[in-house]
Design a protein that fits this description.
D-Maltodextrin-Binding Protein, domain 2; 13-stranded mixed β-sheet; Dipeptide-binding Protein, domain 3; alpha+beta; four-stranded antiparallel β-sheet
């Protein structure tokens, strides 16, 4: 070793100054990049931490549409669009309310007029100045008869929109609506790029692959989809953003078609906003920390109150009483029992006690009987009730079909099979029909079912009008139960009218009582979601979320590596 050192020093003395510097730096550089390359292969996230890059994984087989008017179609759409686009207002989880964004808001004394003044010096990602014309254009699309998002369209039905100043516009309501303010976080679209696009063509426009917005991040390359079904979106911080800029340079979304594909690339992601228990490869990975959270959503079996059998409220009551919800929920992962669609109320006050005896009594009163012998015993092969004409008490339950083996597929089938078993015990025959996405939506549109298993999100406002008011019993309406109740309509309208919290709470309880007695649906459960993070990104908040993307509201507070010092 000593002789080798002597030879090395003699050779080094013969070098020029530049050669001596290189002889020291080059080996160190080789060692450094060698270690760096090894670390990247083992854990690419650790290397990317210093570059200000945040990568999030999303599981969704639905094609990503980066357009704020279609965020209701998938979580990925909502997540990406919330960073690319801005609305007149934005939701602030810390305040559990809405604050000014692209505009400042004034509400008239009678609560019917919402007056917005557009802020100065706003620009689109392509440098074009933002204007009031963009706002009028966007809401014109939403109010168009050809617009495809029925939920968003319903929120602005009957609303008069007009420009009353150079930068001022007014939304006028026929009557006060305490929930209306929550509709103004919808992202605004650029008229200069989409003004010539027909409303019916907007959903399939190439614009949605690399859109231009006004949000804190811009899309720097077109949305890509690989042969294995993975969709990738790369966003870059927009330095022309009008508000506080984020410290994170780049945000990447990897949208995987299924959980197995995601697991193969788990080393490439920092966060998974909605994980399931089936992702054991992630849940057991020590690199990730798990936090649970809930959203104002619920799953229910909606009973078509206009179907021949379910018109009878006694049959609907029997279906509810036959079901043991606690036992059902215990079979499912991360579920919490739900008894009323009013998410703002304490669910524990509305517990439905199961009773097979009560269920049998209600069906008997409804005229559905078992065929029995002289001793009162049910005859063999007569396990289902029949009406006076000898027709079996038979119903169809529609559910959405998911790819076999996925967590959604397991959850839906476990739920449906349990329901069928409970109802069979009281003599009701239920046939399950699983429909693909297109047929499922078609069934909803035409109300072509006796019962349908579906989920509903109350979003920011907890407004029951779109889901339970009789005016929403129409082809594109969201009243899935075909529920018509004068008493319920009155309470729903008065809840909208009042801005007083105590009065609103009182009327919500009254509405919950009405729905509980008339049983237009059987409310089952809500999900408790799992948020996974590798802790590379600091200061991510997930409290008081209405949607997963609400965590991005405070992305300016997030930091990575040295930025956190």
């Amino acid at each position: 070793m000593k002789k080798f050192l002597q030879i090395f020093l003699r050779v080094l003395k013969a070098f020029t100054l530049e050669e001596k510097v290189l002889s020291v730096i080059l080996p160190l550089a080789i060692v450094f990049f060698g270690i760096r390359s090894y670390v990247f292969l083992v854990n690419p996230v650790a290397v990317m931490a210093d570059s200000g890059v945040y990568t999030e994984g999303v599981v969704s087989s639905i094609p990503v549409v980066i357009n704020p008017l279609y965020v209701d179609f998938s979580q990925a759409n909502r997540d990406v669009s919330s960073l690319v686009f801005s609305g007149l207002l934005k939701y602030e989880p810390k305040l559990e309310g809405f604050v000014d964004d692209l505009a400042s808001l004034t509400i008239s004394e009678d609560k019917k007029d919402y007056i917005f003044t557009i802020k100065d010096n706003l620009k689109w990602h392509d440098g074009v100045p933002f204007s009031i014309e963009d706002v009028l254009f966007t809401y014109g699309l939403i109010q168009s008869d050809a617009f495809q998002n029925s939920l968003l369209k319903a929120n602005f039905q009957g609303v008069k929109i007009e420009q009353i100043g150079e930068k001022v516009l007014k939304f006028s309501l026929a009557r006060p609506n305490s929930f209306f303010i929550t509709n103004f976080n919808v992202g605004i679209l650029p008229k200069h790029l989409l003004g010539d696009t027909a409303v019916e063509d907007l959903l399939n426009s190439k614009y949605n692959l690399q859109p231009v917005g006004t949000g804190p991040y811009k899309v720097i390359s077109p949305l890509q989809a690989s042969s294995d079904g993975v969709q990738k979106v790369v966003l870059e911080r927009f330095d022309g953003y009008y508000s506080t800029k984020s410290k994170i340079n780049e945000v990447r979304f990897n949208v995987y078609p299924d959980e197995n594909t995601l697991l193969k690339e788990k080393g490439s992601i920092d966060v998974l906003a909605r994980a399931t228990n089936s992702l054991l490869g992630l849940l057991n990975d020590q690199r990730f920390r798990t936090v649970s959270y809930v959203l104002p959503q619920y799953n229910a079996v909606f009973l078509n109150t206009q179907s021949a059998v379910l018109k009878n409220v006694k049959v609907r009551i029997a279906l509810l009483k036959a079901l043991d919800k606690d036992a059902l929920v215990s079979k499912l992962d991360n579920k919490l029992r739900v008894d009323t669609p009013l998410m703002g109320l304490n669910q524990q006050e509305w517990i439905n006690t199961p009773s097979v005896k009560d269920a049998n009594g209600a069906l008997y009163d409804a005229g559905y009987l078992f065929k029995k012998d002289d001793k009162g015993q049910i005859l063999p092969g007569e396990e289902y009730r029949k009406d006076k004409a000898g027709n079996i008490l038979e119903l169809t339950l529609v559910a959405k079909a998911y790819e076999e083996g996925t967590s959604q597929d397991k959850e839906v089938k476990d739920t449906v099979n349990s329901l069928i078993e409970y109802w069979a015990k009281v003599g009701v025959k239920v046939n399950a029909t699983y429909l693909d996405e297109a047929d499922y939506l078609s069934a909803i549109k035409g109300k072509q079912y006796d019962m349908i298993l579906a989920g509903q999100s109350m979003g920011y406002n907890l407004d029951t009008f779109p889901f339970w008011h009789s005016s929403q019993v129409k082809e594109d309406g969201l009243n899935l139960s075909n529920y018509r109740s004068f008493a319920a309509d009155q309470e729903i309208e008065k809840i909208r009218d009042t801005f007083d919290k105590d009065e609103k709470d009182t009327r919500q309880k009254a509405l919950a009582d009405i729905i509980s007695k008339e049983v237009p649906a059987i409310f089952l459960y809500r999900s408790s979601y799992l948020f996974l993070t590798d802790n590379k990104v600091k200061n991510i908040g997930i409290d008081a979320l209405s949607f997963e993307n609400d965590r991005f509201t405070d992305i300016a507070d997030w930091c990575i590596g040295n930025e956190c010092k």
